[in-house]
């Protein structure tokens, strides 16, 4: 399996992600730089967390206009799985590859902590009861209009919900997918929940692994 | 080609939390001010461009606004375009 990792100026979780993919799952990775178009021949794509373009204008807004995103649209049209983590989720929303937007946290603070989560929609009952992942964001408050929320819920596009809403996110949404289920965006960082070297508050359960296994199950389906 | 000057005022929709205005209000209330009930901070953006005519200038600015200047999920945008004397 080969994964394309879209990296932007200001991405800062790309190395953690690559380390996890290569060392924990033996997946080859290729860094795809924002200034270049790419041939969408990878099995799946990741957009890592960070502060692309310094979060200027709006989080993810400038990254969404990059050449690499134009190529990513082709990959997504071909049904290749795409996963945006944190800033990657914000970029996918700004690129309109996912619905809604992520705005400032309710309490205006950057929140960095482990949060309890529950699977929803097509990921209902996929995770253990004590499932949790770390978050680290200032703009993770998911927002969309009422009609859109109803459509998202009716189509089972909500994949992850906070069990204790940390940021004011609409309907406790922590992660969603496209109508076909192949473009995924989430605020939590599964890549930080796999290896002790990446997280001092390392959980015994390696919850990140459960997330990645769900994602890999989408490849070549 | 003619020169044009455009402005965009980008505001959060009233239904969306606007943190900077909220912070200013908080500071004011801590100083005992009770007369200010609402402050909302937005963005004022200036653009200079060239276009063949007014219609093209308007179209270019509208496209720029849609692609970059605002996100219709959470914001509104008021655009004005004027031709510049050369």
Question: Which helices and strands occur, and which strands form pairs?
Answer:
The complex is a heterodimer of chains A (221) and B (86).
Chain A: E1 2-7, H1 14-25, E2 28-33, E3 44-47, H2 67-77, E4 82-85, H3 87-94, E5 101-103, E6 111-119, E7 132-137, E8 141-143, H4 146-154, E9 158-162, E10 173-177, E11 183-186, H5 207-216
Chain B: E1 2-12, H1 19-30, E2 43-51, H2 54-69, E3 75-83
Antiparallel strand pairs in B: 1-2, 1-3
Could you name the key traits of this structure?
A: about 220 residues; alpha/beta; 9-stranded mixed sheet; B: about 90 residues; alpha+beta; Mth169, Chain: A; 3-stranded antiparallel sheet; 3 strands; elongated
Concise account of the structure shown:
Chain A has 221 residues and is of the alpha/beta class.
Structure description:
- The complex is a heterodimer of chains A (221) and B (86).
- With 221 residues, chain A is α/β, with parallel strands linked by helices.
- Chain A has a single domain (2-216), classed as Rossmann fold, CATH 3.40.50.880.
- Helix content of chain A is 23%, strand content 25%.
- Chain A is built from five helices and eleven strands; from the N terminus they run E-H-E-E-H-E-H-E-E-E-E-H-E-E-E-H.
- Chain B is α+β, with helices and mostly antiparallel strands.
- Chain B has a single domain, classed as Mth169, Chain: A (2-Layer Sandwich).
- Chain B has a three-stranded antiparallel β-sheet with strand order 2-1-3, covered by helices on one side.
- The longest helix of chain B has 16 residues, at 54-69.
- Chain B is elongated.
- The model of chain B has no long low-confidence stretch (mean pLDDT 95).
């Amino acid at each position: 399996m080969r994964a394309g990792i879209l990296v932007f100026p200001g991405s800062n979780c790309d190395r953690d992600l690559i380390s996890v993919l290569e060392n924990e799952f033996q997946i080859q990775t290729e860094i795809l730089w924002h200034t270049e178009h790419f041939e969408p021949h990878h099995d799946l794509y990741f957009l890592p967390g960070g502060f692309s373009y310094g979060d200027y204008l709006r989080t993810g807004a400038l990254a969404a206009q990059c050449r690499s995103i134009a190529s990513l649209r082709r990959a997504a049209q071909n049904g290749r799985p795409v996963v945006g983590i944190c800033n990657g989720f914000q970029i996918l929303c700004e690129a309109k590859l996912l619905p809604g937007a992520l705005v400032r946290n309710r309490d205006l603070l950057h929140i960095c902590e482990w949060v309890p989560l529950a699977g929803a929609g097509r990921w209902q009952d996929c995770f253990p009861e004590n499932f949790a992942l770390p978050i680290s964001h200032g703009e993770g408050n998911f927002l969309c209009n009422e009609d859109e929320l109803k459509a998202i819920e009716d189509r089972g596009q909500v994949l992850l919900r906070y069990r204790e809403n940390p940021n004011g996110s609409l309907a406790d949404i922590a992660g969603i997918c496209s109508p076909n289920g192949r473009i995924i965006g989430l605020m939590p960082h599964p890549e930080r929940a796999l290896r002790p070297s990446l997280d001092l508050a390392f959980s015994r359960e390696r919850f990140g692994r459960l997330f990645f296994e769900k994602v890999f199950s989408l490849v070549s389906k | 080609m003619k020169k044009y000057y455009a402005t965009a005022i980008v505001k959060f929709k009233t239904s969306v939390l606007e943190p900077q205005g909220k912070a200013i209000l908080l500071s004011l209330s801590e100083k005992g001010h009770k007369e200010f009930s609402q402050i909302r901070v937005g963005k004022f953006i200036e653009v200079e461009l060239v276009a063949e005519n007014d219609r093209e200038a308007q179209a270019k600015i509208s496209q720029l606004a849609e692609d970059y200047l605002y996100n219709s999920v959470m914001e509104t945008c008021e655009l004005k375009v004027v031709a510049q004397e050369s």
